[in-house]
């Protein structure tokens, strides 16, 4: 189950700036050439790793049986794919259907006219767009034009709670900053870690920044940053976000040695299921890992989950989300008209069918389409999945993970500076200045 959990994170592009590894491809078409298929077929490069690989393969098989053209599927490992697709797009040899992550990478493709604008097509096919939860479209949109289709499952960042520990220390799930600080103090008094954090992985610490900035300044602050507005990193809310990190470090909020813990080892999750930590801010994909690796932790109802606390005087709402709204696919501008016709048919009738949604729910994920209440209610994980699904639909804002939303070079600088901030080696002002320099690069 550990490998499945990690592949979900990878498939959503959670890590930035990774070097290309050896290529692993399989499927009905090889990696050579454009991969765009013949006149009545369209190439589709997708990411390997279960359970998504089997779901994707079954999805393509079902569409190809409809008689509306053929999708030729090729799988790549996540790291290798990132290099492969950049090279292919730059050479004009991309497949018709391009797997992506929205955000900053999509903006680059759109500005270079390497992917098609789908806005008018979606306007003519409103039933296709209306099928999806509204909050997933933001990461698919560049300058108010839609360049990608959402697909797969959403994975918001969630404040997980060990309810047994919270009860033991006399605290409740925090809904305000004061609640959080109070729980931290009580956890210390009881001899348990207040917050489990695998800080060596860097993106795990970044999750705290994402929510802190939202709660302090509202979602518009990062929206301006992601759009590349001059001096947007110098917003007062960014500095205040950094000061909140300092406040957490001063309170010794994170487990001792957090800076040397890596998320890949699942040690942060183990601290939760072994009753050694009260709270953990992490992606929804960790639910499955805690269920499979934590004995009866999840099944006994000891795992709690909820929103990130609000901050007094802040602009961000308790119901705002951050994380991975969805996976995304785009249509290559170099595909032939015939291939584009097949790809659009796949987008409309194959990409997110009822069968796909059922498979995602069975795997413990929440599909990004509407009308899933009954199916989620019948799941073994109904309470958790229904809470995630409702949260997604009710969220006034769903901010994409920063290392996906930013351009790759800026994303790597973000991770470097995040690590330094959490090590206490950067002041909030220095963090803001360093990141602001990426806007000028």
TrEMBL record:
User: Which first-to-last residue range defines the signal peptide?
Assistant: 1-24
Would the keyword Signal be found if you checked this record's keyword annotation?
Answer: yes
Gene3D superfamilies, per database record: Periplasmic binding protein-like II (3.40.190.10)
Query: Could you confirm whether the keyword Signal appears in this record?
Result: yes
- InterPro entries the UniProt entry points to: Bact_solute-bd_prot1 (IPR050490), SBP (IPR006059), TAT_signal (IPR006311)
Keywords, comma-separated and alphabetical? Signal
Question: What PROSITE patterns does the entry give?
Answer: PROKAR_LIPOPROTEIN, TAT
- Its recorded name reads Extracellular solute-binding protein
Organism in which the protein naturally occurs: Brachybacterium tyrofermentans
């Amino acid at each position: 189950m550990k490998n499945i959990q990690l592949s979900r994170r990878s498939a959503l592009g959670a890590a930035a700036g990774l070097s290309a590894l050896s290529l692993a491809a399989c499927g009905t078409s090889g990696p050579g050439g454009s991969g765009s298929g013949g006149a009545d077929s369209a190439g589709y490069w997708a990411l390997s790793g279960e359970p998504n690989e089997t779901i994707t393969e079954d999805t393509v098989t079902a569409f190809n049986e409809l008689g509306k053209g053929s999708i030729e599927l090729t799988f790549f490992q996540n790291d290798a794919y990132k290099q492969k697709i950049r090279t292919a797009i730059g050479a004009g040899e991309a497949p018709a259907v391009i797997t992506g992550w929205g955000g900053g990478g999509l903006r680059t493709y759109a500005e270079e006219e390497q992917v098609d604008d789908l806005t008018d097509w979606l306007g003519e096919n409103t039933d296709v767009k209306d099928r999806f939860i509204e909050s997933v479209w933001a990461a698919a949109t560049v300058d108010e034009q839609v360049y990608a289709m959402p697909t797969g499952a959403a994975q918001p960042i969630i404040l997980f709670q060990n309810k047994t520990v919270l009860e033991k220390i006399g605290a409740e799930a925090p809904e305000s900053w004061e609640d959080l600080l109070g729980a931290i103090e009580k956890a210390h008094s009881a001899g348990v870690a207040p917050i489990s954090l695998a800080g060596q992985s860097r993106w795990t610490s970044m999750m705290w920044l994402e929510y802190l900035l939202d709660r302090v300044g509202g979602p518009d602050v990062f929206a301006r940053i992601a759009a590349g507005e001059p001096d947007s990193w110098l917003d007062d809310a960014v500095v205040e976000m950094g000061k909140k990190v300092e406040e957490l470090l001063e309170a010794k909020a994170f487990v001792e040695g957090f800076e040397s813990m890596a998320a890949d080892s699942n040690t942060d999750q183990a601290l939760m299921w072994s009753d050694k930590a009260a709270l953990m801010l992490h992606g929804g994909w960790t639910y499955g890992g805690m269920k499979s690796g934590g004995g009866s932790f999840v099944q006994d109802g000891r795992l709690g989950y909820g929103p990130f606390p609000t901050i007094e005087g802040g602009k961000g709402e308790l119901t705002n989300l951050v994380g991975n709204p969805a996976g995304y696919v785009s249509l290559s501008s170099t595909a032939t008209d015939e291939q584009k016709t097949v790809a659009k048919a796949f987008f409309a009738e194959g990409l997110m069918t009822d069968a796909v949604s059922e498979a995602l729910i069975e795997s413990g994920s929440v599909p990004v389409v509407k009308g899933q209440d009954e199916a989620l209610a019948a799941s073994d994980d109904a309470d958790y999945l229904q809470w995630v699904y409702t949260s997604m639909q009710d969220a006034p804002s769903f901010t994409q993970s920063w290392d996906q939303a930013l351009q790759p070079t800026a994303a790597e600088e973000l991770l470097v500076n995040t690590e330094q901030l959490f090590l206490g080696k950067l002041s909030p002002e220095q963090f803001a200045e360093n990141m602001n320099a990426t806007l000028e690069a």
